Amino acid sequence: MSASSKKQLRKEQNAQMMTERQKQAQAEAKQLKVLTVVFTVIIIAIAAAFLITQVVSGISRSGVVEKSTIALTVNEHKLNSVVMNYYLHDAISTEYNNAYNTYSDYTASYFKSMGLDLSKPLDEQEYAGEAYETWADYYKAIAIENAKGDYALYDLAMADESYKLSEDAEAGIANTMAYMQLYAQFSGASSVDMYLRSMYGNGSTEKSYEEYTRISTIARDYYSAHMDSLTYTDADLRDYEADRYNNYSAYNFQSYYLNHTSFLEGGTEGEDGKTTYSDAETEAARDAAHKAAQQLTEATTVEELDKAIAELSINAEKTEKPTSTANTNVMHTSLNKEYADWLGAADRKEGDVSLFPNKSTTTDADGKTVEVVNGYYVLMYVSTNHNLEKLANVRHILFNFEGGTQDDKGNTTYSPKEKEAAKAKAEDLLKKWKDGEATEESFIALVHDNTGDEGSKETGGLYEDIHPQSNFVETFRSWAVSSNRKAGDTGVISSEYGYHVMYYVGDDELTYRDYMIREEMRSKDVEKWYDAIVDATTATLGKTNRLNTDFLLSSLANS
């Protein structure tokens, strides 16, 4: 037997000598190996799935798809879905905030009256009209127009060598981004990017939002700069005023309302305790209201009118006699047409009185719609203000109230002692100024280190073009537009903010009337200019499937 044969035989003998236990152990080992391989495959699969999820989630957060999806092209600018989501969100929030400023707690009811539910996604609600399919389409259209306008103006501004972004606008951009930092902190977000993603969607970053803010700000600033550049001669103003003279006048008049329900007599009390009146009783009340109103037209002065009101049968037993209501400086354009036409008539004179029936429609016993008079508005003309007073220019130094007590709603109230402290500081500073040079320059020198009004600190406390309708607190506005005010006048006044040291710089060149005419002319001319620019701008819609059209208005209500 050869050596190789012997070797082979030993292998066979060794194999035969394996015990059953060894065979079993070997089988178990083989099975374990198989299970180990399977388990490893499963673990790898799980790990891979987790890794893929993380990668996909990271890609989603980064907004790669949104950044690469062009939603709108304006001229040469390609606006991706991230930028258009900024425009969409801000279009929605602007409309919501405007509604809230008007309707406050009734904002939801306001939108409901328009057919819009705040708790449902915009893209799931049918638009109340034929122009759009859903409310998302409506807001998307606004966003597109806003973007188109912004980039059209931005391109013009960049091409205009004489244009430079104003300091106020530049500061506005910085403030907006600073607020984003604060919002991120208050919301608990770890970064501005995270906060912006939660607000505007994936792909939103601090850098892209700042660019969006800058372009929008430049557009608005360029618009304002062009508007301010529009000038008109006195002849231009008079020509424009000629066929709309009354639009810039205001009226002083007395008013009183007589409701026919005040004259109801008789009636039948039902089981529910409510009193109902027959048609005859209601008609008698309407006749009585008309007769009473006619009696008031005999008055020729405010005193006579109030006396006649007090002597009406419906007021005879009242301890506190009602009087007419004084309406002061009511603009012609804010009145309904009937009132405005009557008050603005060329032959109108002091003491004239007229009746204006308050009408409505109802259904009679035969089912026909009939017009009824529910009462009468009584108006007495007093005078017309043609708004010929000059605009006012003032400077001020504000001493804010300090301390205060805050309630559960965040409202702060100040004690008489805290208010007196602010008043004392204001009076002391005014005395210091009077004891010195007492000039406008010396007043300006005191502003920077003393005023609490950050908005006017850098301009020496200056506010210009103040008129009777200006958006200032009443005490501030009234002091500024007082008819006997002259250059160099000073004083201390109080407001909800604190005490103001006032300095009257002088009258502006424009009257309030001419200011209104000029601003209306500017508004119309700049609108024509803007419309022509937008019409000449090329805008091409791209893919809008990545826009956040499932937005919930309730998210704004809860913010």
Shape: globular
Count of helix runs: 18
Look at the helices and sheets and give the structural class.
Answer: alpha+beta
Described by strand count, sense and barrel closure, the largest sheet is: 4 strands, antiparallel
Radius of gyration equals 38 Å
The residue ranges in which pLDDT falls below 50 over 5 or more consecutive positions are 1-30, 32-59
User: Separation of termini?
Assistant: 97 Å
- Per DSSP E runs of 2 or more residues, the count of β-strands stands at 15
Task: State the strand order across the main sheet.
Answer: 6-3-8-7
Which bin fits the share of residues in helices? Answer: 40-55%
Give average pLDDT, whole number: 89
| Proportion of residues in extended strands | 15-25%
Report a brief summary of the structure.
By secondary structure, the protein is of the alpha+beta class. It contains 18 helices and 15 strands.
Please explain how this structure is put together.
With 559 residues, this protein is an alpha+beta fold. Helices cover 50% and strands 18% of the residues. The protein is built from 18 helices and 15 strands. The chain has helices spanning 3-16, 20-62, 64-68, 81-103, 107-113, 135-159, 167-187, 192-200, 206-229, 234-241, 279-296, 302-310, 337-343, 416-435, 440-450, 474-480, 512-535, 554-557, and strands spanning 70-74, 77-80, 250-259, 268-269, 275-276, 325-331, 353-363, 369-385, 390-400, 405-406, 412-413, 462-466, 490-494, 498-511, 539-541. The chain has a four-stranded antiparallel beta sheet. Strands 12-9-14-13 form a four-stranded antiparallel beta sheet. The protein has a three-stranded antiparallel beta sheet with strand order 2-1-15. A hairpin with a 5-residue loop joins strand 4 and strand 5. Helix 6 (135-159) packs across helix 9 (206-229), helix 7 crosses helix 8 (192-200) and helix 9 packs across helix 17 (512-535). The radius of gyration is 38 Å and the shape is globular.
